[in-house]
Automatic annotation (TrEMBL):
It comes from the Bacteria. This is Inner membrane-spanning protein YciB. Plays a role in cell envelope biogenesis, maintenance of cell envelope integrity and membrane homeostasis. Keywords: Cell inner membrane, Cell membrane, Membrane, Transmembrane, Transmembrane helix. Signal peptide: none annotated. It is a multi-pass membrane protein. The gene is ispZ. The chain crosses the membrane at residues 39-61, 67-85, 97-117, 166-185. It comes from Sandarakinorhabdus fusca. Pfam families: IspA. The keyword Cell membrane applies.
Length: 199
């Protein structure tokens, strides 16, 4: 008889503090650099900070989360265009593109019966059942569509400094509030952070 195939070991995760630093440190530096310089200086700082964030993630866990990797690539491309052409439009379009890609990937996962969110977050949210992953993926897909629209409105109606504040503080707050709002759904569908993940 064939031996059962052992399950792969869970991928190592960044500590909570380091995860926050990797994901939100570049944004904070972007805000500070814009405050004391301008958007072009802030864009250069943002690009450098993203390089450091990706490097830290690889150094600590030998892995770069897909969302961070996609953000990194788009920041480099659109940040580079911003600096090369000296046009603020490109860095302001970056969030719209990122949110649009995330929404499209999540909706594609739903359409094909494989909730994309589960593929990238399963290790961090153990125990959630299939229905829970489907609902959570749907909710985040709709949220990313809303954030895409919000950025398009903001970049057209706000000054550059106001847009930077919206991007750093408004968007960050929206993400935290929305994530917390998903807690009851995750709990109803089996989230169990106190025990080992379900087989």
């Amino acid at each position: 008889m064939s031996q059962p195939v052992p399950e792969p070991a869970p991928r190592p995760q960044l500590s909570t503090g380091l995860n926050l630093a990797v994901n939100y440190g570049p944004l904070l530096l972007f805000f500070v650099a814009n405050k004391f310089g301008d958007l072009f200086i802030a864009t250069g700082v943002f690009m450098a900070a993203m390089v450091v964030a990706v490097g830290v993630s690889w150094w600590k866990i030998r892995h770069v989360p897909p969302m961070l990797l996609l953000t990194f690539a788009i920041v480099l491309v659109f940040g580079g265009l911003t600096l090369w052409l000296q046009d603020e439009t490109f860095i302001k379009l970056k969030p719209t593109l990122i949110y649009g890609i995330f929404a499209a990937l999540l909706f594609f996962g739903l359409a094909t019966g494989r909730p994309t969110l589960k593929l990238v977050m399963d290790g961090a949210l153990p125990g959630i059942d299939a229905a829970g992953w489907t609902k959570l993926t749907r909710n985040w897909a709709l949220f990313f569509v809303a954030m895409m629209v919000a950025n398009e409105v903001a970049r057209r109606m706000l000054t550059t400094d106001q847009w930077v504040s919206f991007k750093v503080w408004g968007v960050t707050l929206a993400f935290f509030v929305f994530a917390l709002a998903q807690a009851p759904l995750m709990t109803r569908h089996g989230l169990n952070l106190g025990d080992e993940p379900k087989p």
